[in-house]
Structures are given as structure tokens and as C-alpha cells.
């Protein structure tokens, strides 16, 4: 047998001792695996980077994972930032009554924090200053739970609304803010009717027997869209029954003499800053794919 033929022959198969020893040697150099539940960010990163070629997959995973963490931080804070702030400007006795009832949070100043609707949402930084309007719905005046689900109440305040809007020419707080009773129909239906009646914003007051507290409404209740809110262009918020009832009483008591003026704003609080950085390499094909898709 020639030397060339010997070198061309494949190596002999490993014996039983070699088969048993090979896994043992590999196992000896590996550290114990940490068993942790996969986070949503890691699962999303893996799914996005699965089509990427193997040499670039680690690069893709790292950047997408960091991006997911940044988005998670932003969304986590968005629940705080979406809160609407109502600041009563007059009458002064209403401010004192709300303060005595504990409507104002210490860190928020003399403001009522409400839950902003998921339709007709305003841009951050929006500020509305105007007069509060409220009239009981004629269809449910004798019921403990209001509705404002039909345009019947519009006729009772239409002239007053039109007159107030004319104050815009003099630079006054000409916005019209409707206060509505929660109940019976959807939030979108109420706000759509208010918009058609001339409202620039709407405040829905919790009614009935829900017993929702201020903090519960702020952090757990969302004025969700019923699927028809695409045509709603005015912002709306939900506030508690305790705070809303004081404002409604002041509106009714001061009609024509001392109107309730308030300010609604959706400013980002400085105490909750959110900074998110996204790093990409413009020379990488995978980075361009992530940015464009």
C-alpha cells in the first residue's frame, strides 16, 4: 500500500472510549446555563432578526433589543404623560371647595388629573382655555344616571354657546368645554354629539354607582373608542364623580353671573422626563431594513 493511499484514507472511526470522552470534555469547559424566562423584548428581537444572515445576527439582536427596551420605557411612561390636567381659573370659591375635598394632588398643584380618551387625542402641549357648560339631558332629568346620548340638550344651550364663541374676537377664553354625564351610551357617542353642538372639548363626569376613585380613573380607566371615533376631533377626559359634582354645582349656580372658567392642558410634566436613544450603523444593510420597515 502506497503512502499516498494511506494519506487519502479517512481516519478510523473513534472507539467507544473516544465517544464517551468527547461530550465529557465539551461539558467540562462550559459554564452552567442560567435559566431565566425570556423577556418580551428579547423574544421580539429574536423574531425580527431571525431572517438576518448568521454573521450579522448578533449585531441585529443587540440593536433591536436596545430599541425594544427604549420603546418599552417610553410606553411605560406614556400612561403618566397622557393624563389631562384641568385647572379651574374661576370662581375662587370653587377652587377652595375642590382643595378642601382633596381634588388636587400635592405634586400637581391646583389641578385635577383626568384620563384622556383614546379618540380625538390632542397633541402634547395643547392648552384650551374656556368656559364650562352643562345642562341636564332632558331625556334623563329624573334618573340618577345621566346620559347626554342625544342632541336634545343642545337646543337648551345653543344660543349661549354661540354668544360665548364671539368673545374670541376680543381675545378672551372663547373655547367651549362641555361637561357630560357618564352612562348609557359609549364615550364616543357622547363626545361626537358635543362636538356637533359646538364644543371644543368635553369632560365626562363619572356618575351612577361605580364608586371609582380619582386614582383609579387616572391609572385604570380609559375612555376607549367604540370603533366609530375617527370623525371626532375634540379632546375629552374623564374625571371622578366627587370632583365633577362640585364643578357641575358651580356651573348651575353661577349661570349668567359667575361662569366657571377653566384651562385644560396636556403638557409633559418635567418630573417625568423620558430619554430614548437609538443607535444604528447607516452602512449596514440590516440597519436600513429595520429603519424602513
Automatic annotation (TrEMBL):
Extract the ranges annotated as region (Disordered). Answer: 1-36
The molecule here is called: PA domain protein
Its keywords, alphabetically, are: Glycoprotein, Signal
What superkingdom heads the lineage? Eukaryota
Organism field: Toxoplasma gondii VAND
Q: InterPro entries in the record, alphabetically?
A: PA_dom_sf, PA_domain
Domain (PA): residue spans on this chain: 177-247
